[in-house]
Structure formats: structure tokens, C-alpha cells
Amino acid sequence: MAAEIQPRPQTRKPVLLSKIEGFQDVVNTAVIIPKEDGVISVSQDRTIRVWLKRDSGQYWPSVFHTMPVACSCMSFNPETRRISIGLENGTVSEFVLSEDYNQMTPARTYQAHQGGVTVVLFVLEMEWVLSTGQDKSFTWHCSENGQQLGTYQTAAWVSGLQFDVETRHAFVGDHSGQVTILKLEQDNCSLVTTFKGHTSNVTALCWDPVQRVLFSGSSDHSIIMWDIGGRKGTAFELQGHNDKVQGLCYAPHTRQLISCGSDGGIVIWNMDVTRQETPEWLDSDSCQKCEQPFFWNFKQMWDSKKIGLRQHHCRKCGQAVCGKCSSKRSTIPLMGFEFEVRVCDSCHGSITDEERAPTATFHDSKHSIIHMQYEPTRGWLLTSGTDKIIKLWDMTPVVS
Ligand SMILES: [Zn+2]
Ligand SMILES: [Zn+2]
To answer: What sequence ranges are listed for the domain FYVE-type (predicted)?
Structure first.
């Protein structure tokens, strides 16, 4: 019988709309202004710039402001047109943009950290400014009176921060590879739990408050989807980058996760599929297929078991196998393996073509991405690269 052709969900592909150039150094954070043809950028070259699209089709600065030190990060609230900027000297400076985006007025400055600010997040609902610094602290300030409300010492430098307004949980991803979940009160916080799955820096976090799913991206090239809402403690791996993952955004309308990496890759993941957890690795002193003993210290490898270091384990069944019994490779997209991975010979025979159908599409941004942002109302993506260029992408065109 001929194979039945399943209608595939439509996938989108990024189309380059514009480039914004002219920076002296890299743009650490930039955001698309919703409902306005504009972009706000903060750069290592110390500038804060607001770019508006002119009749010529080019983006030109309507605001150009130079700070005393480099601007490391930014949070923009479109409702209040407030920008909170984290600086290399540990302060957070806030400005308010005029309605026409042609002027910027200083609002408030917080002496938040002893070292450079690594992430800043303004939460309008709480009137809170959350920030993390190179001093390994996480603090939150009241944006109405400027007072520090609380602080928490993190295990390492923080590079990812998300907040759930409804339950007041903060997700803090750090350079040790762990994600710490804190429950914040007005002036104190408590440790809820930590997620350990990455073998290197957490570089990006993305929280979907509807599905209650947290995505973490890492320098170890992987993404982990932590299904917090499912309450079963399930975690799904997504392996689709050849280098550090640098940014993550979830598009709720299309149930797609967009990830960017320093390899220049933009990966669009279809999250509207039932994914499978990767199996636990089985511990054995001998190959579980041919029973040849392993000659290395397997116990020690097991004790330091980490996702991503799975040589000589079948990724599908988790059995410990020797090289001879796992000579073949296969993709297993529903387990997150979009690239070919080691599988044992019996699993190789059992994986169907349908199971091999990719659940992600791969695109080349042609620059090494250090930051990304997705604007869902227009379906635009912004990428900022080591080439000091911002690129704007239309993510709506459909490829069949
Ligand atoms: Zn074997
Ligand atoms: Zn297997």
C-alpha cells in the first residue's frame, strides 16, 4: 500500500526586510516597537538609539543618546514607553520616550549592582524592575519610589531572566547551567527549586505563561523545554544548533518556538506535536546488545551524567551499547534530535519514515547572532550580530 501523504502544518520562513547599521560596537539588546515602524537599540558603543523608518525606506535615528558607559541590556514597556537600561557600571537607568518617539526624558536611576548589569526586566503589573549583575546578585526595585525591595545571591552570573506575573515566580538562568526558580514577595523571596539539565551556560530563557512552559537555551548547543504546567516534571530536549544558542522566543498563535544561535542559525520549531522525553541512560558494565564488557570506568561517567554527554548510549532506548552495536545514525525529531544521533541497531530498524519527519525548519541569518527579539503582532523577528548589524525579518511568509 502506498504511503499516505499527511497534510503538513504550514511552516514559515524568515524574509530579510531591513538592515540597521552604523554602530561602533555590538548591539547588546534591541527591540521592535509594536505598532510603529521603529526599533530601540542599546549598544556596547554606549549609545541608546531610537530608529524610525523614513519615507526612503531606511531606518534613521530619531533619538541618539550617549551614556557614560556601555549599555549591556534593556527592557522596553510599550504601554508606558519606558525603557530600563542596564549599564556596565551596575546601574539601571530609566527613560521615557515621547509619543512620537522623537524625544527621550530621563526618569530614574537605580544603583542596582556592584558589577555590570547582565539582565533587566521591567514588570508593569507589579511596578518592579528586576535585574541581575556580575556581582552574582538578583535584585528587584520598586519603580514608583526607586527603593530596593529585595535581593538574592545567585550561584553564578545570570544571563537569562523571566517572570510570571500571575504567580510571581522568577526564572533565573545562570552561567553554571542551572535555572533557579524563585517565588517573589513584596520584600523577600524564597527558593522554589532548581533545574539542572545543561552542561554549560544558560544563555536564554523564554516563558510561555499560557502553556506554562519554560524554554532554556545554552552554550552547550541545546534547548530544554521544561513542562512546568504539566506538573509531571517532564523535560524535552531540542537539538538543532551547531553552536551556542543565543536567543529564544515563543510565538503562541502558531505554537512555534524560534531559536537563534551564534552559528547564525534561525530554527523554527513546531511545538504543536506530541514530543517524547529522551530515555534515562541505563547503567551497565557491558554492552546491552552483544554483552561485550566496557573497559572504561563507566560508573564514573554515570555519576557525572549530564544531558549532552551521551556517547555510546542509544538515544532512543537509552541502552548502553558498544560502538559496533550502534554503528548507525538517525534523526529522532519527536525526541528533539533534528540532527542524526547514535542509535542502536535494533532501534535503527524500528524508526519509521514518519517518525523521521522533521519538526523544525532551519534558516541562515548570515550573521553570528548575539541577541534576538520576536514581535508577535506583526510577526517580525529582530536579530543582532557580532557584525554590529541589526537585521529585521518578516516571519509570516509560508513555505509549503
Ligand atoms: Zn555491542
Ligand atoms: Zn536503542
So the answer is: 281-352
Q: Are 26 and 384 in contact (CB under 8 A)?
A: yes
Bridge partner residues of 97 (DSSP): 104
| Gap from CA of 7 to ligand 2 centroid (Å) | 29
What domain count does the chain have? 2
Q: Indicate the pTM of the whole model.
A: 0.88
Residues 203 and 258 occupy one common structural domain: yes
Please state the separation of Cα 237 from the chain's center in Å.
13
Residue 14 burial by CB count (10 A; 0-12/13-18/19+): exposed, middle or buried?
Answer: buried
Q: Which residues surround ligand 1, an ion (CB under 5 A)?
A: 287, 289-290, 322, 325
What's the CA-to-centroid distance between 259 and ligand 2, angstroms? 29
pLDDT digits (tens, 9 = 90+) for 249-264: 999 888 899 999 999 9
Positive or negative, the Cα torsion across 305, 308, 311, 313?
positive
- Residues 31, 141, single domain; the answer is yes
Looking at residue 147, the DSSP 8-state letter turns out to be -
- 263: exposed, middle or buried (Cβ count in 10 Å: 0-12, 13-18, 19+): middle
Query: What digits encode the pLDDT tens for the residues 144-158?
Result: 999 999 999 998 999
